[in-house]
Specification:
By secondary structure, the chain is α/β, with parallel strands linked by helices. Helices cover about 45% and strands about 15% of the residues.
């Protein structure tokens, strides 16, 4: 994708100035021109590929001038590079913006623009932007991959979030990469030398969740044989990522609210008040606003969590990211599996057009399945037939459930993966559990034991019993 620069100057139409400036641009760079400075944010919203701005400091007969416009731009797009266009009269202001306040990247006198210098500065500024953007994409467990305008906007919001300590709420469907984004926020923040602790609120049994969050003292309950730190203590000074926050019990919501408001908590069974210096990033694949209206989630906690909000669009709404993701996953999976396979053009076209109800996670699983099961070096459309042949009525939900059944039975997915995928929706999880039990029954030649099922789902036997009870299922019925 080509880079763009935005030129904000009320006189760019004069004396063929635009034509001259276009000639100075590097070949891979396009320019967007705007004569009304107050429309800067509107133009940036329309052109997410913009990496650099040329900003005039003086706009005749307009409500906002250069410094005001610059402040607005930096408040919403702190990563953008800005080159000031100035006259001799306001050179001191330009110097202050560049050298003292570090808000601008460089400045030029309008009457003395040197084409070679302009071109070199544009190249350097865009390279600087790209290096910073690449750092935002990197996490300790992978890369945030893609080039769609929607993803670029997400990364810009991620950059903003990493510069402050405010609580962040990540929203989006399962499989869109919310934990990866949380890790990127942490690694680019001032807390990056401290721990990042991830907690899946939906994967912890209800009777243990408070202890998991805040720890417990010896003797607080049966089997509490020693003092134990909770996740908030483990994350001290760093970031705690709370996935599936709607799964929290009402009492836990109250205690989390206290941590966010006062920075205090007690261990279960303890009397000593502990301090929590922790940055909270929360995530959900459900609409918290609706849960608040239904009385299922505290409104005061919602407002505390939703200080900064980043929504990650589903993969079907950013199809430009599919090919870069396929390239990334194929390289990673080939290295892990000792293969050197590629995807044919026809198969790639199929992957781009697919709806991906399970988003990026489903795409990765689909590529792994095709690599493992295909004897060909070039994966064809036939190697991805399972994307369109699985599931009742051949619909997207049926495809997704059938694939998760297959992945669970083959050991590619655990029950906790399934919980993350389907959130608190019991119907999908119940169908998957029924499918896994049936598949194991066919494989074993008889009804699977509780241990067989727990091993297949990579969970403990007592946790399996709780899951079966919550889904109103009994093994003897199979």
């Amino acid at each position: 994708m080509s880079s763009k620069i935005l030129v904000l100057d009320d006189r760019w139409r004069q004396e063929h100035w635009k034509e001259s400036f276009d000639d100075w641009l590097p070949k891979s760079v396009d320019a967007v021109y705007e004569e009304f400075g107050f429309k800067a944010l509107e133009r940036l919203s329309e052109n997410p590929e913009v990496k650099l701005i040329f900003l005039d400091l003086q706009f005749e007969n307009q409500p906002e001038q250069g410094e005001q416009i610059l402040n607005k731009i930096k408040a919403q797009y702190p990563d953008l590079r800005v080159i000031i266009l100035t006259s001799v009269n306001d050179s001191q202001l330009a110097l202050r913006l560049v050298h003292d306040q570090k808000k601008a990247y460089y400045y030029f006198f309008k009457d003395a623009l040197d084409p070679d210098q302009v071109k070199k500065l544009i190249e350097n500024a865009i390279e600087s932007y790209d290096l910073q953007a690449e750092a935002i994409r990197k996490t300790d467990i992978g890369m945030i991959v893609g080039e769609s305008p929607a993803l670029i906007e997400v990364l810009r919001l991620t950059e903003r979030a990493s510069l402050v300590d405010s609580t962040v709420l990540l929203t989006g469907e399962s499989g869109t990469g919310k934990e990866l984004l949380a890790r990127a926020i942490h690694l680019n923040s001032r807390r990056n030398h401290k721990p990042f602790v991830a907690v899946n609120c939906g994967a912890i049994p209800e009777e243990l969740i408070e202890s998991e969050f805040f720890g417990h003292v010896k003797g607080a309950f049966t089997n509490a044989l020693t003092d134990r730190r909770g996740r908030f203590e483990m994350a001290e000074g760093g970031t705690i990522f709370l996935d599936e926050v709607p799964e929290m019990t009402a009492p836990l919501q109250v205690k989390l609210l206290r941590v966010l408001e006062l920075g205090e908590f007690e261990r279960v069974g303890g009397e000593k008040t502990l301090k929590a210096n922790v940055r909270v990033v929360a995530a959900t694949n459900r609409l918290l606003e609706i849960l608040v209206k239904e009385g299922k989630f505290r409104d005061d906690l919602y407002y505390r969590l939703n200080v900064l909000s980043i929504h990650i669009p589903p993969l079907r709404d950013r199809r430009a990211d599919v090919i870069p993701l396929v390239t990334y996953f194929m390289e990673r999976l080939n290295n892990a599996l000792g293969e050197a396979k590629e995807v044919s053009e026809d198969a790639l076209d199929l992957l781009v057009r697919h709806a991906w109800p399970g988003n990026i996670r489903q795409l990765e699983h689909a590529l792994e399945r095709a690599i493992v099961n295909s004897a060909r070096d070039i994966l064809s459309v036939d190697d991805f037939k399972f994307l369109t042949s699985l599931g009742e009525d051949n619909n997207a939900a049926g495809q997704l459930i059938s694939q998760w059944i297959d992945d669970a039975v083959s050991g590619r997915a655990s029950w906790n993966d399934i919980r993350r995928e389907f959130g608190a929706t019991g119907d999908g999880r119940k169908k998957i559990m029924e499918g896994v039990i049936t598949a194991l029954k066919q494989r074993l030649g008889g009804r699977p034991s509780g241990s067989d099922l727990a091993d297949a789902l990579d969970i403990k036997r007592n946790y399996l019993n709780q899951i079966l009870k919550s889904l109103d299922l009994q093994l003897r019925d199979f």
